[in-house]
Design a protein that fits this description.
This is Branched-chain amino acid transport system ATP-binding protein/neutral amino acid transport system ATP-binding protein. Pfam families: ABC_tran (PF00005), BCA_ABC_TP_C (PF12399). Keywords: ATP-binding, Nucleotide-binding, Transport. It comes from Gemmobacter caeni. By secondary structure, this protein is of the alpha/beta class. It folds into two domains: 167 residues, P-loop containing nucleotide triphosphate hydrolases (Rossmann fold); 60 residues, no CATH class. The chain is 37% helix and 24% strand. The chain contains ten helices and ten strands. A hairpin with a 2-residue loop joins strand 4 and strand 5. Bound molecules: adenosine-5'-triphosphate.
Length: 257
């Protein structure tokens, strides 16, 4: 696999009965890019996310992440490899505090294993302190420090998205799949959320983003992949895809032959 690529999908397919939701998709994501994944409703974007993140088994095809074949791995394994999808880990526990929600998203919590508490309580306590410190750092990065002790259920839609970002950050992912980050988010928080994504990207995290807000996609994505009816129909810079006839036709409902 080309070292400049963080993710490669080859011939990915997923059918639901007679419907080809994802129909032989190839995808090359460059390391360090924010890539947009767009397409009309029902194009197969969410299904493709599920195939990459291990939630859905492909009917055929292969996914390589940082050179490793992750096809067929469980979502937790994919997560531990450094590929995180928002919503991939369980949704926030509404009756736990924001801090507890972030702490319990940390992979490798030996405190959860019954025996390790008896055999090596010092190690568990030390790890818990480290987790807490890291969770506090991540919450500060996401501007949620003032909400640390609030119940997760009391957060606004935008703050919930920030909490999700904080939770996936606990696994120090190299690639984050973001599902419609701005849907249901107050406009005043959208800029803040995007600012955090851009900052994480500057620190070396790659992103694949499904987003219906085209202005946003055009603004932050280096490259855009366009899907329609399960297929990848175009790929390029924002300037290239916006003038692509196949893309215009797909959005007008005329899918090219
Ligand atoms: N579990 C499922 N069972 C049956 N059909 C499904 C299932 N999941 C998705 N589909 C179908 O697969 C196709 C692709 O759906 P998908 O949700 O991946 O599209 P999308 O591009 O994410 O759409 P949207 O932008 O509306 O979220 C649609 O026709 C959808 O109805």
């Amino acid at each position: 696999m080309n070292a400049e690529l963080i993710l490669q999908a080859r011939g990915l397919r997923k059918s639901f009965g007679a419907l080809q939701a994802v129909d032989g998709v190839n995808l090359d994501l460059r390391k360090g890019d924010i890539t947009g994944l767009i397409g009309p409703n029902g194009a197969g974007k969410s299904t493709l996310f599920g195939l990459i993140a291990g939630e859905t088994r492909p009917s055929s095809g292969q996914v390589l992440f940082q050179g490793h074949d992750i096809t067929g791995m469980k979502p937790e394994q994919v997560f531990r490899h450094g590929l995180a999808r928002t919503f991939q880990i369980p949704r926030p526990f509404r009756k736990m505090t924001v801090l507890e929600n972030v702490m319990c998203a940390a992979p490798n919590q030996s405190g959860e294993r019954f025996w390790s508490n008896w055999i090596q309580p010092g190690v568990v306590a030390q790890q818990e302190r480290e987790n807490r410190a890291r969770a506090e750092d991540v919450l500060a990065f996401c501007n949620l420090t003032h909400m640390t002790q609030e119940m997760a259920g009391s957060l606004s839609g935008g703050q919930q998205k920030l909490l999700e970002l904080a939770r996936v950050m606990m696994a120090e992912p190299r690639l984050i799949l973001l599902d419609e980050p701005t849907a249901g988010v107050n406009p005043s928080l959208i800029e803040h959320l995007i600012d955090r994504v851009v900052e994480l990207n500057a620190r070396g995290v790659s992103f694949l983003i499904v987003e219906h807000n085209m202005d946003l996609v055009m603004r932050i994505c280096a490259r855009i992949v366009v899907m329609a009816q399960g297929r990848r129909i175009a790929e390029g810079t924002p300037a290239e895809v916006t003038v692509d006839r196949k893309v215009i036709d797909a959005y007008l409902g005329e899918v090219p032959a």
